[in-house]
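Readers of this paper often ask what the protein records in our data store actually look like. An entry from our holdings is shown next, in its original layout:
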Amino acid sequence: MKKHVDKIGGTLFAVLALLVIALKPFSPELSAQAQNVLGGILVTIGIWIFKPLRLTFSMGAFFLAFFLLVLGLPPSVVFSGFTQSALWTLVPALFFGFVLQKTGLGKRVALGIIKLFKPTYPSILLAWVLIGVVLSILTPSITVRVAIVMPIAVQCCELFALEKKSRGNSLILLTAFAMALMPGSGWLTGSLWGPIIQGLFNAVPAMSGLVTFSSWFSVAFLPMELVTVLLVILGYFVLRPKEKLPKDAIDKLKAERRTPVSREEKAAACILIGVFVLFLTKSIHGIPDAAVCMLAVICFYITGVMSASEFSSGISWDLAIFIGMALSLSSIFGFTGISTWISGIVVPALAPIARNPWIFMLIVTIIVFAWRFIDIALTIPTMAILTPILPSVFEAYHISPLVWILIYVMAGNSFFLLYQNMWALMAGAIAKDRVWLPSHLARYGIVYFAACMIALLVTIPIFVRVGLF
């Protein structure tokens, strides 16, 4: 079934692209070159979303680069995303996750926190929250965090003798997955969203430098941490287990033989903590985030935490190429005039809701959540299309582009269904036969959506008070 959906979806985008290229339906608003570019982007988005013929993210990026260069776009525009500091913050940061996993430091931290708590559901859920926060400080890689916590969550379910597909089993696994995803979204370097969105904003001249650690923290920290708390509490009541946890379960976990902390773990911990401290004190020393991340990778090599051969295999270069090309879309849209054209459509369409902050935030967030059923490519294509027009939205309605950070992140983390969220897919694959029931995932996803709506109700008055509307 999935193969048919992939082929049908990819074909529909390709047919739509051919119609745009052949018929030029948007003349004279868009030039012939711009409409050809739009056709190439449609094919690429079809590849990124549906992955027909098993094409990867990077293959879609290669196709788009090839197509745009053939059309005569300057390489400086086509590859502009690869020259942004945001990408060169992201690539070294991906190695943080690799080091955390390779040295065993991440697993040691997670198990150490689990062992501090009693074998009750509220205690275990609180442990996952703390694990999510600590791992988010150490690495922005959600992929690595999921890879660390899910095997431990499965181990806990087995030690607790929980029945497969039971509510208790699903609750522990889903909370572990969600805590690897949610808390770090509240600060710039706590998840992949930070470098990606920062790069998309920086590619638009009117917004270059707008997204910083402090500006991200000011708009996202409170609502995302509130979402985290609400998700844990409400999720517990929605999936409240009937079975109790055995009292000796944590004792079994504590009885596992501890290995000595290796030199590599100590070095990795010192380097990663140093990185986070430098991020927090940027206003004092002025060192760019990208430079801090690159220095950390150099230190990994100097201390022997990483070897030269691991540079090619340590991270997903497919993801790095995909994000680099996606970051180029803002410049491509600006160069070809597509941004101006989209702005002329979207900005007037927002008029009925843009004058009221409450209506605007709630309706736009709901729309982007709904769009996530279609855009499953980390929402990056959607963000790349919307971001260049945010200055026009600001000029028309005085809505700060910063409020869109929260909308992007909330919708990007959604997971009503498994296919919508690549990290949910990954978590389910790790859990194997212990994976949650689809109905449990859907309920938990609805709880997450409800938590986001509640968090918005709390946050909107603050946004109004500080002048974001």
